[in-house]
Amino acid sequence: MGEASIGSTGRLGTAVLGFPRFGPDRELKFALEAHWRGEVDEESLRATGRAVREHNRGLASAAGIDVVPVNDFSFTDHVLDTALMVGAARRPVPGLAGEFLLSRGDATHRPLEMTKWFDTNYHYLVPVVNPASGFAPDPSKPLAELAEAGAHARPVVVGPFSLLHLAKSADPAVDPLELLPDLVPVYAEVLRALAEAGASSVQIDEPCLVLDLDARQLAAAERALGDLVAAAPATALTVATYFGGLGAALEPVLGLGAAEVHLDLVRDPAQLEPALRAASSSGTRLSLGIVDGRNVWATDPAPALSLVDAAVAALGPDRVTIAPSCSLLHVPYSAARETGLMPEVRSWLAFAEEKLSELAVLSRAAVASGAQREDIVGAMGRVVAERRASALTNRADVRERVAAITPDDLRRATPVARRAEAQRAALALPPLPTTTIGSFPRTAEIRDARRRHGTGEMADDAYRRYITDQITDAIAWQERVGLDVLVHGEPERNDMVQYFAEQLEGFAVTEHGWVQSYGSRGVKPPILFGDVSRPRPMTVSWWQIAQDAATKPVKGMLTGPVTILRWSFVRDDQPESDSAWQVALAIRDEVADLEAAGNRVIQIDEAAFREGVPLRTSERDGYFDWATASFRLCSSGVDDATQIHSHMCYSEFNEIIEHIASLDADVISIEASRSGMELLDAFRAFDYPAEIGPGLYDIHSPRVPTADEMEALLVLAAERIPLERLWVNPDCGLKTRRWEEVEPAVTAMVEAAHRRRAAAGHEAAT
Predict the structure, then answer these.
(1) CA 174, CA 373: separation in Å to the nearest integer?
(2) Is residue 407 part of a domain?
(3) Among 165, 700, 754, 762, which one carries the catalytic annotation?
(4) Whole-prediction pTM value?
(5) Is the pLDDT score of 5 beyond 50?
(6) Residue 589: its pLDDT value, please?
(7) Is 165 one of the annotated active-site residues of the chain?
(8) Do 331 and 451 share a structural domain?
(9) Could you tell me if residue 3 is inside a domain?
(10) In sequence order, what are the residues at sequence separation of 6 or more whose Cβ sits closer than 8 angstroms to the Cβ of residue 124?
(11) Distance of CA 75 to the CA centre of its chain
């Protein structure tokens, strides 16, 4: 059915905002990569996409979901798809090949900038709108997927306000939001085409409405969406908001006249009460996001049904739909497949498939009462109660250690400038020291060795010899290339978070729990279910092998507490800060062991530091307090001569630069190449006191930059950061790239650094 209502079905209507799109066995990943290697043609790739979409619709059908999305699937990125649909982006060449050039680039095309989708670990491609080019409709993709699913399905598109709010302008003098009056009529044409094809409703995703908007922005959003509702009378519009509450935008949005508004009641249940008051007079139906689309824990039915009861009492059942809080893109497919987990832990989990079943149960319980309701949701409630009472979730020794943390544990004794002097003396590095972020390519051979070791086909001794050979080969290659600070390459690591989660108590790891990060890149977030401790050293022996083989310093490579938490599915039964202290103490122990073994350069990656920042300004101070302190808890126990590095991915730094400084790292490395060093403007304006490695090499693209290009980026960097505080490195780790890309790129990067050293020496001499 196109719209959900209770009717005579004996349940409340249900909807899904979006599905995972990787495929339950990562079919999309493997098909994309095979296509990029030239092994399968475009039609075969498209067939894989159809199979993934059919699988998703089958899950919804089996659960009895009423409103099923289409056009939520993408071969590249849903923001880029929407930009192409309305002419806010142009393909360099027709078809999927043009989309891949925009997302990945090649020798002659630079890819679009990529950044995090709000506070998730998904990366979207940033459209660049050209005020001089205008917009033009191309609804071919949503029309094709609507025809495939049937007219009862609901097309999903990113809304005009969010699309432009997330975009950049080709003309710096023009705010993209100024183009809304030109863009809305193009959206209206798309809606008319969908209505003519049989779509009775369309979901307009406007997540930017949950951000802190000024009066001008809010007025622009209200005007644009109001015009769109008025222009599409034949199509019922659902304005979907998620990742937070609407705040000041709530009443304007509910006054638009849209058929339905979706609210994320997991992130902000308190917004329901004012929403009911506004909706009661507007006639708008409410979609209640009561099942967490961002986390993996089974839903507690009592608070969820309390929200539903309030909505039904105020509006009546025909004006209420229940749904996940957001798209299920952010969770894996099925917890039932995770037979390797402890049965008790597995019983606490709900992945996408289980969340659909939860919706079905809650929809029946919503119209039941008393003993009948208890019979329907009793099993759900018992799961939640068992988790809260389990000994697996509480350890007195861990909590006592957290309680004993003192202020002295959270700071280094010496200021960063004086530490820099000690580190220069100890390390004897040249100007513009070169390094990499940590990982080297994960070859098929490495992945196969890890697989065979995991299944028992390769004995422990044989596996250790193999990894040792990989490490010593990596050290030898780096010394030949001329890097100044080396890494061991991480051949033993499956993932920068999972590797540590496998060795920390309180975490579980899955076999099939993949989630898309961008393109063909997936992550398998660990599950933090209990209190955290470190039973034994996790990295020291591998670092020692590397340092013994090297004539230059080798970095110890760790992942920081914020990133471990942000890239895991975390506990929802205690504040995230409590978990951060526990993880930080475990990493602090590892830092101490590395330093005791002779390590003088230790990198504690906080790639997700910016990603964790709350979307609302009012909530940020609390986050920064515990996030920065937990990093310092990891790093503050070392000597002045031990250099602490950190790395951050795809981040807008302007608003958080002072908090990055409060991490008190000696060196940070950041993504900067796609933005042409624009991100460094924040560091120039703030006068950041420590050393910085702005990425010169975009590792998310197969494109190999030249030494000339990277030297030009270094020149731009030196205009913003004093030369003596600059490092030279890629944007991120290299594990997703092939050696035939990495070798020439890193060689060119070293050459660029040598050129700038020579130029700086010449300039100083003259």
Answers:
(1) 56
(2) no
(3) 700
(4) 0.91
(5) no
(6) 98
(7) no
(8) no
(9) no
(10) 77, 78, 79, 80, 114, 115, 116, 117, 166, 518
(11) 17
